[in-house]
Amino acid sequence: MALFSILLTLCLLSIHQVLSDKSDIGLNPGEMVANHGYPSETHEITTDDGYIITLYRIPHGINDDGTAKRPPVLLMHGFSACSGEFVSLGPERGLGYILADAGYDVWLANARGTAHSRKHISIDPDLNPEQFFNFTWHEIAIYDVANSIDYILEVNGDESVYYVGHSQGTTVFLVLASTIPEYNNKIKLANLMAPAAIIKHYPNTFIQGICKYVDRVWDLLQKYRIYEIPLVGTIRDTVTTLCVNYPDEESDPLCAFIHDSMLSRIDEADVPVVVSNCPSGAGLKQYVHYGQLVRDGGFRQWNYGTEKNLEVYGTENPPDYDLSLITTPVAFYYAKNDGLITVEDENTLAAMVPNVAINYMVPDDSFSHGAFAMADDVVELVYNELLDIMSQY
Ligand SMILES: *[C@@H]1O[C@H](CO)[C@@H](O)[C@H](O)[C@H]1NC(C)=O
């Protein structure tokens, strides 16, 4: 009996200490899913403006024969990440697996410009980067997300999807549901983790300073034909390794900032698997559009400058996204130690959205922006709450 309890204790301890699986390193998210014995499908769709994007699907859980009908859920990753962020932590902690085992038909989208969606029917991203990367999260919303939802509904047969977004994945929901309000009827419930739309009080003063000159930075980047953040391969590994094990705060304040706000709750043992997919590629114009939000304070469309704004929008300033048009119930999940979105900005945003299902602050003071996808205890702190809310809609 004593032996049995010792074994049981050891077993429970080892369950609690699940680390991500090293055999996932170097695999794409779909291959990771298959690597753990889950059903895995890869779908490529062509958006209305010609981008070819990849959706990975986990059609059902591991202990499930897949015959019953399941409600679909679309997961949308953050800026400079990719769908790998929802499976890198493995079956016990990766949200993709957890939702599949909870009875959902799970779809992991990859925005245009990421390593898994760097394709277009006629534009070559390497030969014509100025054309290929001529998008912000506005286009990711109205094409990639909208077209993904329609595709998922067609394959699954349901009339609406559940939505889960992290960071930029929240931005694109807010853009879509306010710009093409018909999509509110196609989304049962939107779960927004670390919502990025109002970024008026961006906590980092160094970056806030740069944002004042964001238009000049953009002109300069164009002049030197830099359109992409190629965070893949060697560059990615170097940057991430540097910032996970940053030397010290004095010698490298920027890395210290990235570490404290983004990577603070990641278990070092998870790093090799997490960084094998994230960060992924992205377009610099996305970054600049966020920079405009920091500078201007609102949640609005791309700012061309007064003259061209008048021509394109008929107004000197770009139009605000009209969040009052969002009828989908929205569940917000935010963190006190989010190094990008302050509590004040989050609360301002939540007050602008008409149908708030819950505005949940993670009960942990050091939980950061990246922790929603990477924290060792994200299940207890966030995902259990999310599953509970989803079951109510
Ligand atoms: C980028 O798209 C805008 C419209 O959104 C267009 O006016 C501009 O000419 C495009 N630039 C390039 C280089 O394709």
Automatic annotation (TrEMBL):
Superkingdom of origin: Eukaryota
One of the protein's GO biological processes: lipid catabolic process
The record's keywords, sorted A to Z, are: Glycoprotein, Hydrolase, Lipid degradation, Lipid metabolism, Signal
Asked whether the UniProt record includes Ligase among its keywords, one would answer: no
- What Pfam families has UniProt attached to this entry? Abhydro_lipase
User: Catalytic center at which residues?
Assistant: S167, D338, H369
Molecular function per GO: hydrolase activity, acting on ester bonds
The entry's family comment says: Belongs to the AB hydrolase superfamily. Lipase family.
Q: What is this protein called?
A: Lipase
Q: What is the source species?
A: Zophobas morio
